[in-house]
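Write out the 3D structure for:
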Amino acid sequence: MPRQPPAGPGAVRFVDFAIRAWRTDPQHVEVIAHSTPVGGMRQPVSVRQARIRPADMEMGFSHSLERAAEIGRDLARVLLPDAVHRLLLESLRWAADRPDIGLRLRLCLDDELIDLPWECLYRPELTGPALPAGFFLADGDLSLVREPPIVLLPAGTSERAQRLLFAGTLFDGEMNDAWLVRDEFATLRERTAALASRVAFDFVATTDAAEMDARLATPIDIFHYAGHVEADNDDAHFLQCAHFDDRSGFTEAAPAPAPWTRARVLAPRLKAAGTRLAVFNACNSGHWNFARPFMQSALPTFIGVQGSVSNDAALAFSAELYGALAAGLSVDEAVTQARLAVLDVALRDPSDMPAAQRTVQVSANDWLRFMIYMPTGDAVLFPRPERGGEKRQARQRRADRLETLYATLARLNDSEQARIVSELYRSRVLILGRFDAAHKPTLEALGRALEAHPNHYRKHLFDYAPPAGRNLTEWVRTHALMSRFIVADISDPSSVPHELASVVPTSPSVPIVPIIREGAKDYSMFRDLRAYPWVLPTVTYRDDDDLRARLDADIVTPAEARVAAWQPA
């Protein structure tokens, strides 16, 4: 759930979790999390992965959420090997306990990997049918961008209106405005009318070459393009005048397209115009062939599309994005809000409904199609002075929107596993023990007591087999790192010694509260684990009633104190 301190929502500062990945040979990818809030790796991990064909990662407009989850699981196996995944879980735990902190996945990838739809990353520990909340980016406190931070933005705030140049491609012949770019511009300006003093919208048709050339010679804060991008080769470009026929599809109708239709020409011109944000609402505009020149020109932020996206989704995204940026919110805050606004539309008007019954055309996966390139560490593109409470109002709108969306997800996903990542890390307690007839009733009673606690914990009894493809040790370790703390009953233990041995040495952020029934035997090597400061004193209980009576003072309070005190090395 979104974080709301008593005084109202404040700024959320996103901290980098930086992952670098590159291909070393046809069968392997090297991956390293070189900078995270909880430390970094010194050596990369080699992941066995044959070359990935882009066609194997495509999401068509009619594809289901299940397709995106399938892609996301495959990509998680590449980008999140165990060592990286453990650091990510630790970082999510670290961020979840800080109301003003979000986590930014910053991907620094080679040319082969950068185009893949990493926005689909799906939590590898989740099995079963695809759930919206299973995607990492369903959490408003988690952002994903591409490229290392190498661009510095000027300091200081400004109250002047930001100039947005909207360039739209028209067609030749009778179709003229088949992509409805004029309608898109009018609708976008209408939806952001309240921002008239903050963003000045100008429209230019790319078919008017002289006017477009003149506009590009003036200051431009935000450049927005609607149309079609061809990015199949290094000379990536957009269409100045479109033509369509059944045999060739979309082609360029202009006999001699203007040089600025080429990304390699447009990028330095936008940089010279002072552009801080370029948004391309066009199929394939997020492709690296098209985005590369903008990164080489050190444009602070570039937003493109993975494949194609509907006009309705692009409008919902853009309206939220510009509204948040104009108020002075960060790119991360604005993009997460805009992305989830599209998801909210899709959930309210499902894409599997017959077209005649749908009020908008938004596919189940449109919210995952927006690709953010952000080679800057300072994520506030248009800083505003704190006057009139505009930022606070904007953040309150963001918090309200996320709260509404999460409530929708909770109704759609009747599963403990489907809770939003940041909420899950703040509330779940893993219970380990012996799940036979003599011991399980006590563990279940403990779980009910945790759920009835004023902190509203969510019990997770590890009394089931791991999914196919994961061994027991991996499964326990993953779920341990996804828990606020662990309660381990060491009374006459069976598998608990091995589970604790695999979890304790590598999980300093997870307090572990051992409990034991009076008169029961523990195991001799447990004393070795007591050397770790996050293994708290053992609680001895007489019976279920006594355990419930000791819950707050002897289990919850020490565990929460340890959570509050822990800091990454």
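The first strand starts at residue 13 and ends at 25.
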